[in-house]
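Researcher: Next entry in the queue.
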Amino acid sequence: MALANFLTGATGMSAQAHSLSQISGNIANINTIGYKRSETSFATLLSGESLKMNEFSVKSVDSRCIDTQGPLQTTGNRLDIAINGRGFFIVNTEIDGTGIEHYTRAGDFTEKALEQADGNTTSYLTTKEGHAVMGYSADEDGVFSTQIGTIRTSVGGRIEGIATADITLKANVPSNEDDHQQFGLAVVDNSYEGKTLTMNLDKDSSNFWDMSFDIQDGTITSPVVATPINFSSVGKIIAPPTPVVEIAWDDGTTSSVTIHIEDLVQYAGEKTVFDIDQDGRGSGLLNRTVFDKDGIIHGHYSNGVVLPLGKLVLARFNAPNKLEPISGNLFRRTEEAGALQIIDPSQEAPNTGFLNEVLEQSNVDLADEFTKMIVTQKAYSSSATVFRTSDEVLQEIISVKR
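Model: Structure for this entry, 402 residues:
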């Protein structure tokens, strides 16, 4: 009987010491971004039988509260992002996405620049420990890939310019004016520099105008004669022409620019420009990268262009608490966690979203951990008392033989 009591006291101390270790780990990670607390519960352990009676000691059973979201805190950092709802960020141990895949709730991301064989420098979105963040990369036109891979945040740190090919003008031509009217249209030449294409309107009669063009630092080669435009009695343009302006630039290059004036109107009042849109742009250097609420990272360039660079996706599991925690605030997939599901929150998860410039904090409740620590310490002391008492009983049994 005394020896069995030794075992009961020893397993009690061992279980409570293990519980204290888990509590210590939770407290140590109170400030770890996205940390998920560990909880220790206890189960009976059959240690033997005596006089047809079962003798039970105790064992510890650990679990992780991975599916419990921690508080969200605003940081103001442009690459910080938090998941509001279910799911995990997907990261890879290799920057090219060929390594081991892990999962995390910590969204304190950064960028890592690598020099490529062609001499260009490509930057990637990574965790603070250098793991590549996975998602959908976008091409130079902002079109997302359909295959999940590492997210590039820049290639060479710049975007090339595009010469203007189309211009759309939405404006009012004053019906009560007979004077010459001009509209300055911005264009980008083949050197990706901004120029001004002037659209001239000269009134011919009540609702008729003649349209011609002039160009800065170049010559208009077509159309060589004015194009007539006609407005109805209610000010709408009738059968709007779509002139293609051929330009011979002073540097020897040429451009063709199509002018769209379907939304040109003629009302009484002043000449008014509602909107001018053109598809050209100058070359630009990347100034900064920023997340939006849909998990899309945008590049802001010096030429005023904003382009999507990549989009985050989420991993989901049917039993996320069965994921295996590993170093670096990461989780490893296990069979018990269930099948991996890849989710695009902007399309497939209406109750889950991203919060930019926000981080999910540890879900550890410090007051609760200190309460558990006190209870665990008392339980350990009680088990130690049982152990000491069992030792005294055993000494008494030994002394009987003497």
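Model: The chain has three helices and 31 strands.
Researcher: Noted, moving on.
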